[in-house]
Amino acid sequence: MTANPALVRTFANELCPAPFPEEVFVLRRAGVQIELQGVQTRVKGWQARGALYLSNVRLVFVADKPDELGLHAFDFPLVYIRQDKLNQPIFGCNNLAGQVWPAVERGGPSGELPPHEFRVYFKEGGIGTFYPLYYTLAERAKQAFAAAQERSRLAAAGLVDPNPPTYVAGLVSHAFVDPADPSTIYLAERQPVAEADRLPTAPRYTARYAHNYGEDEVYEPMDGQASAPGAPGAPAARNT
């Protein structure tokens, strides 16, 4: 999990995570609420309303507005999510709960930092479209990651790629679309942002997006002064 990944504007003028090379966005789900424990806010936790973006490598929550310290978005690498469970209470909304390893220095499954607890509440509509796609991509990612660790061949510079774009395209084309689920599905050949907004390097989940994450409880500013595309700590949005 990383704080304030780089964000760009979609063709629909919505804030969206800047895609990595070979990253394919699957869907956007608005009207969700997130609770994160152990993150760097004034109360050591974060509650916010916003939208979820699902890709072949990560789940990203983008808040409707940043908090008072500038925290605007969080990145959940699919390979770092564990013990995730869909809860469907009789009274209350569907929610996805679990843990995610922090994707910062000394984080990750082999690091010293404990995982963060998270819960995502789906406040508007069902989950019949979102959850099957999320579950399939997350399970493939975690299985491939575990197998690579056992073989000691996990590349230090990036991710195992269990969900290549060709696989994602087929998955989306055969996905069941739940009329009660308001998710926006993206086709592989029609991504939400311009190709020029794609980051130049693959994700490095041992590095920081915000250089001061976990140090002084202050996040990178979200004031429109963006860093160079793809640079660590480049959280601000820019127009396409």
Automatic annotation (TrEMBL):
Q: Which GO terms describe its cellular component?
A: nucleus
UniProt cross-references to SUPFAM superfamilies, sorted A to Z: PH domain-like
Q: One MF term from GO for this chain?
A: transcription coactivator activity
Per its UniProt entry, which superkingdom is the organism in?
A: Eukaryota
Give the residue ranges for region: Disordered.
216-240
User: From start to end residue, where is composition biased (Low complexity)?
Assistant: 224-240
Q: Which CDD domains match?
A: PH-GRAM_WBP2
Swiss-Prot/TrEMBL GO biological process terms: positive regulation of DNA-templated transcription
Family matches, as PANTHER family: WW DOMAIN BINDING PROTEIN 2, ISOFORM E
Quote the protein name from its UniProt record: PH domain-containing protein
Q: Which organism is it from?
A: Chlamydomonas reinhardtii
